[in-house]
């Protein structure tokens, strides 16, 4: 006769105190966020946020308005909703913006400059931030906590405060004539956030994984490249999108450090406000052209973006 020994299962401990309150607050927040009122509010906010972009798109294809069959004032003098009251439909605004219409530099040259500016300004801070974040997360050294707090505090320093000192340094070392002044400026302004995001993501990786790699004889370089890098793709993509959108849409740094040969597309669009006084319909078309690349980047990396934003928000 055989006997079956029952398997004892330890009951899950009951939550008490702060953990119980935290769980109750999380459940209450989830209920509120999934309510019809919350969904309706989100839809209203999304519509309100999208209306200006729709107006920009409509203005980009508007021809001169007509009143009783006669050409009237340019469409820029009236709201975009007047498009449905007699304005003609045209793509000439896009062609004029792209070619320059013989009055200014073509937008195509500015678009190429934006690509040359943006790609290094994204890759350089990511490369530096990865090394710094690994050191702060997994290497013990004197003053680590103080340095990390100091780097994080740099995010509150206004960019405008640093423009004149940086311009003085670039002029002294002869870096103000090319792309290096723009690349270095965006790297400096983006590093604090990059280090903070990547550090938080690295700290969520189980320490047992790092210890197992060390037991197998892996050093810091091997752990960083073979163990951590595959797990850091969401965080890298998340910051990459942030930095790409920031650099691509930047005008302040472009006006301060770029020249005629290195001007990005934002500076080119800003120049249209003076060059096209009598045909300002070109400006919405130029803005739509400038939106295509960052929109494609965001949609292509959206799944990594959400995962990167949630890094460090949930434990367990």
Rg (CA only): 27 Å
Discrete helix count: 14
Distance between the termini: 44 Å
CATH architecture of the largest domain: Orthogonal Bundle
Quaternary organisation of the protein chains: single chain
Question: What would CATH call the homologous superfamily of the largest domain?
Answer: MetI-like
Strand content: under 5%
Any idea of the CATH topology of the largest domain? MetI-like fold
What's the CATH first level of the largest domain? Mainly Alpha
Low-confidence stretches: 67-75, 312-316
What does this protein look like?
The protein has 316 residues and is mainly alpha-helical. It has two domains: 37-90; 109-309, Orthogonal Bundle (MetI-like fold), CATH 1.10.3720. The chain has 14 helices and two strands, in the order H-H-E-E-H-H-H-H-H-H-H-H-H-H-H-H. The protein has helices at 17-33, 36-60, 92-99, 107-138, 144-153, 159-172, 180-203, 207-215, 220-228, 233-248, 252-257, 265-275, 282-300, 302-309; strands spanning 66-67, 70-71. The chain has a two-stranded antiparallel ribbon. A hairpin with a 2-residue loop joins strand 1 and strand 2 (70-71). Helix 10 (233-248) packs across helix 14 (302-309) and helix 12 runs antiparallel to helix 13. The longest helix is centred in the middle third of the chain and has 32 residues, at 107-138. The protein is globular and about 75 Å long. The two termini are 44 Å apart.
